[in-house]
Amino acid sequence: MDKKLQGLLADVFGVRESEIAPETVKEDVESWDSLKQMDLVMSLERAYDLTLDIQDIVAMTSVAAIAQVLRDKGVRLED
To answer: How confident is the model at residue 79, as a pLDDT?
Structure first.
């Protein structure tokens, strides 16, 4: 799991990094609501210097999906 992404997600959702794994889905994280989704979008855009469109935002329903969206935008993540 990419440490930068793991740390960013833990910060956004207010959980421990150990609670963030590729198989983590939106339903697993109590704080992952629509407001946190927008916080996530802004945090990802700042951290990785990119712009996410609505299709990207809608697709981000799991940690694995977030990582895939970032890879599709050209971000290199460590496994």
So the answer is: 77
